[in-house]
TrEMBL record:
Family that this chain belongs to: Belongs to the biotin--protein ligase family.
Organism name: Lentibacillus salinarum
Domain BPL/LPL catalytic: 1-189
Binding site for biotin: 45, 116
Free-text function comment from the UniProt entry: Acts both as a biotin--[acetyl-CoA-carboxylase] ligase and a repressor.
EC number: 6.3.4.15
KW Ligase (keyword) present: yes
Substrates-to-products reaction catalysed: biotin + L-lysyl-[protein] + ATP = N(6)-biotinyl-L-lysyl-[protein] + AMP + diphosphate + H(+)
Keyword terms, alphabetized: ATP-binding, Biotin, DNA-binding, Ligase, Nucleotide-binding, Repressor, Transcription, Transcription regulation
GO MF annotation list: biotin--[biotin carboxyl-carrier protein] ligase activity
Protein name as it appears in the record: Bifunctional ligase/repressor BirA
């Protein structure tokens, strides 16, 4: 059914026509000792979860709604690297399979023509300094037409089809995604973060541009130069310093 091109990723696929959230199912499976590389995929989700407690709209056959269970032998502090890795994989898949030119907006939104096409939700279960498991949730909008998005996200959200005028069958996209993810993951485990960092930066939205950052007490303008190993945004300030930014409101100036 899946025609996989992978060695270990997705060798166990749990498929649901309807799920509340593949993320929830993945947590449950992981607690019940599901193997590294187990994949949960749904045709639709009735309670898809986004970052920061938001909802994720997951209409039937309109996109990839998937969660991957990983058991990497890395420290919890290195876990953000997996999210950055996932973003580069999604950007690769979109560029390989479609004519769209994706960018990655820090920390991990996939954009096409400045609008969000895919998002990543990474959740980790760790005890002391050992990772029990990491669940990487991937939501990619593929076949929505513009009017199929809820009004609340209409100006910010898009799909591959809306931006390229081409419908994409979901299964080949999933095959490519799992293939590219496995390659990137194996490379990461073997060679570390530097290849991912370079690739992430090559896709980065507005890299080299001046951005405005609002943190707790201050507002700064600085040049966005890249991403750090711990997932922080790197900026270069006027007085010649490089700083890390972990969160805060960011204004992405128009070029
Ligand atoms: C974001 O807010 O940008 C992240 C969205 C992640 C959505 C995916 S869809 C598959 C998986 N299951 C969920 O409930 N959420 C993630």
């Amino acid at each position: 059914q899946w025609g996989l091109k992978t060695e270990w990723l997705g060798r166990n696929i749990i498929h649901r026509a309807t799920a509340d959230s593949t993320q929830r199912i993945a947590h449950q499976a992981a607690r019940n000792n599901a193997a590294h590389g187990t994949v949960i995929v749904a045709d639709e989700q009735t309670a898809g979860k986004g970052r920061m407690g938001r909802q994720w709209n997951s209409a039937k056959h309109k996109g990839i709604w998937m969660s991957i269970i990983l058991r990497p032998a890395i420290t919890p502090a290195a876990a953000p690297q997996l999210t950055l890795l996932t973003a580069t994989v999604l950007a690769d898949v979109i560029s390989e399979v479609t004519i769209a030119k994706p960018t990655i907006k820090w920390p991990n939104d996939l954009l096409i023509n400045h609008k969000k096409t895919a998002g990543i939700l990474t959740e980790m279960q760790a005890e002391q300094d050992r990772i029990q498991y990491i669940i990487v949730g991937i939501g990619m909008n593929v076949n929505h037409t513009a009017d199929e998005f809820p009004v609340s996200v209409k100006n910010k959200a898009t799909s591959v089809k809306s931006e390229t005028a081409n419908e994409q069958p979901i299964v080949p996209l999933i095959q490519q995604l799992l293939h590219d993810f496995e390659q990137a993951y194996d490379d990461f485990i073997e060679h570390g973060f530097s290849n991912i960092k370079n690739k992430w930066e090559s896709y980065a939205y507005r890299i080299g541009d001046t951005i405005r950052i609002q943190t707790n007490h201050t507002e700064i303008e600085a040049v966005f130069t890249g991403v750090a190993e711990d997932g922080a945004l790197l900026i270069h300030t006027d007085n010649g310093e490089t700083q890390k930014v972990y969160s805060g409101e960011i204004e992405w100036f128009h070029g």
